[in-house]
Amino acid sequence: MPFRASDPVQAMTPTPNASLADAAPWWRPARGDALRIRGGRPLVGSYPISGAKNAVLPLMVAALLTPHLVTLRNVPASLDVAVLSALLRRLGVDMNWSRATVGLSLTMCADRIRPGDVDADLVGRMRASVLLLGALLARCGEAVLPMPGGDAIGLRGIDFHLAGLRAMGAEIELVGGTIHARAPGGLRGAAIHLPQPSVGATENLLLAAVLARGTTTIGNAAREPEIADLVACLRAMGARIDGVGTHALTVHGGAALAGAVHAVMPDRIEIGTLACAAAITGGELTLRNARLDLLGAAAPALAAAGVALREVDGGLVASRAAMGLVGIDVTTGPYPEFATDLQSPVLALLAFAKGASAVTETIFEQRFRHVDELRKMGANIVVRGRTALVRGVPELRGAAVTGMDVRAAAALLIAALGAAGESVLDGLDHLDRGYDGMTEKLAACGAAIERSGGS
Fold first, then answer.
1. Interhelix angle for 406-418 vs 268-281, to 10°?
2. Helix 159-167 / helix 132-140 crossing angle, nearest 10 deg
3. pLDDT value at residue 157
4. Of 71, 79, 78, 57, nearest to 105 (Cα)?
């Protein structure tokens, strides 16, 4: 049933997040600015995996490409979704939310777009806002966008995005921290080769290319499952795209796009994170909606480290293997290699494992900022350049720690669940950005966890 003004979910006291509440009436600002976690309890029960954070954001932006209705199902109720909803609403997109059996359902109508109405404060809160560039250029021929924000985990420049759009005929200037882009003659197909298989650049160029005149080829394209999910939605809207799942995408552009109904894929990072949590705490979780094939190289790596994953009807069962947790070596890389977003939770897992481990990060140069926080809990980890050397310890101890990005916050949370005593986790905005009700879902599986006023 669609949300109505009389629904309890919309009867909200005005807050500084009022614009978010207008665009995403289900959103609630976090109560308290910290989590208190009493560790040492096995997680047992059924944990529903949400729609993927990394998939839903480009899917929402895809609605800008057509004046017809686009409906997304299995939408996670996360802060990033609320922020992007507010951005799209400011641009003129009508949004209708309804509750569904799994996640939220969102229907969007972008029949009247105001391309100059971009909220700088909202753009500064999330990296994925850069995807507005390709979609607005393709649909409106212009875009003015402040430089996007997001997690401070590395440089993550948008040069690849801009170079690809320029190859398609866009005129782009950077003035005072703002991107001014125009395509007065419309975008045209081009042969583009990415220096690295960037997920964001691949998505941005796909969004631009489906309405561009002629054929666009994207060489060295990213192969992540989230790319395939975006392609599936664009195809349902009428786009013609070949090469999904490979490094060579071909987009036959120029056709007007229709509406579509699309279900967001399960969140593979949440799957891996909760599998680690089950193993760390010695519990057993049924991860509903989870799929093993989405994990890529993380699946055998987790198995080698002592995380047992068993496929069952409708999901996976995660637990600690009989051999216990053991050290392994991990190197992150583009899909199907080990996902960089799983590096933080796996590092927390390996802090509990017997023996030595080496975790090498090849994607983001500042993704070990959670290491000092794990050390506060007694972890034995030393960082040498882009490699974290881990010596497992028998027990971590509760401590006051801070999550400085989305994945670090989740990693510290699952470490605290396995630690002895009480931990206080600050940085909840990061946790709320990336996960739909993680603390409530964990509490339903036996975690002793509650929001509080801070550490």
1. 20
2. 20
3. 67
4. 71
Consecutive sets of 10 residues in the chain, 455 residues long: mean pLDDT of each? 31 45 86 90 98 97 98 96 94 93 93 85 82 96 81 57 96 89 95 95 98 98 98 98 97 97 98 98 98 97 98 98 98 96 97 98 84 98 96 97 94 98 93 92 97 65
pLDDT computed for residue 149 by the predictor: 58
CATH of the domain at 410: 3.65.10.10
- What is the spatial distance between Cα 430 and Cα 432, in angstroms, rounded to a whole number? 5
Does residue 211 share a domain with residue 280?
A: no
Q: According to the model, what pLDDT value does residue 164 have? A: 97
* Calpha distance 53→48 (Å, rounded): 14
The CA distance from 293 to 311, in Å, is 10
Full DSSP string of 20-37? HHHH-TT--PPSSSEEEE
On the question of a cis peptide bond just before residue 76, with omega within 30 degrees of 0, the verdict is no
Instruction: Count Cβ neighbours within 10 Å for each residue of 77-91 and write b for 16 or more, e otherwise.
Output: bbbbbbbbbbbbbbb
User: CB of 429 within 8 A of CB of 15?
Assistant: no
Q: How many domains does the chain have?
A: 2
CB-based contact 35:449 (threshold 8 Å): yes
Whole-number Å distance between alpha carbons of 187 and 144: 16
- Decide: pTM greater than 0.85: yes
Q: What residues pair up with 96 in beta bridges, in sequence order? A: 107
CA distances from 434 to 83, 193, 267 (A): 12, 30, 10
* Residue numbers of the domain that contains 441: 31-50+266-452
